[in-house]
User: What shape does this take?
Amino acid sequence: MITSRWGLPSPSTQKALTTWPTDFSRDVPTIPCHSHNDYWRRVPLYDALAAGCTGVEADVWIDSELKDDLYVGHTRKSLTSARTLKSLYVEPLLTILNNQNYLSNGSTVHATSPLLGVFETSPTTSLTLLIDLKTASESTFPLVLSALQPLLENNYLTTWTEEKGLIPGPVTVVGTGLTNFTSAILSPENSNPRIIFFDAPLPALASLTLADDNDYNRNNSHYASVSFDVEIGKPFLGMMMPAQVRKVRKQVEAAKEKGLLSRYWDTPAWPVRVKTGVWDVLQREGVGMLSVDDLAGVRGFWEGVEKIPVVGKGV
Assistant: This one.
């Protein structure tokens, strides 16, 4: 397994990558969970995939003191030349998807079928790569577009054009943080084709008027997100109250109507009973993605090991 070989001499890790299609993900059922701050994992990207998460997140910066590249880290002082968007995500995804879709002689695995995704158990599932811009959109976004070109050239990205509409791919890229909706997502540079979609503001979807109906839709957005702590608030005595559950329900339904995946970040992390109770409510209400820091916990929750149905009464 790649995660167990991480840190060993590179030939060992490379050997693990070459057996990806029949080794790494063969027994991994997918979970609609988003690996929050994925780059903090012991093995970025791979730990999340091993848990079955169908979404990962990278905080991306440009830094004038380092060479012209896109660096991944939570704060500016954590940036290093060894941790870039290319090295942690673009190149590994290229390797994984090439191994999934091409034989050693260069021929395709399934010549007449759509390209396979990263999961052997669910090959049509698209992995969401959330790119959180930490530096100005106008300077960072063009570099992200450039960094993604190898994935686009191999037809591994979900795309949209006015002529062909939305074409799903093995990887769907979403811009958040300082990503500007108008000047970046809707820019000509990202429209032919569009390869980066928006992380729409979830609360706004439930209040949009008919005149605003086309602002956020599946042609330009993919996620619809908000902070759980800010928008919903802390559970009362460890339980979500009826009004909180109703608010979640309304927002989740609004996202579904737009064809977007709802997501709440900053959900309770402790105690475990409260954490899994909130997960239970969100899962029951049909949230699109569970944003998680605890990969082992969400794996156990999804399998029913830790699932504790703590819900608000009288909802």
About this structure: Residues 232 and 259 are 22 Å apart (CA to CA). Confidence is low (pLDDT under 50) at residues 6-13, 305-315.
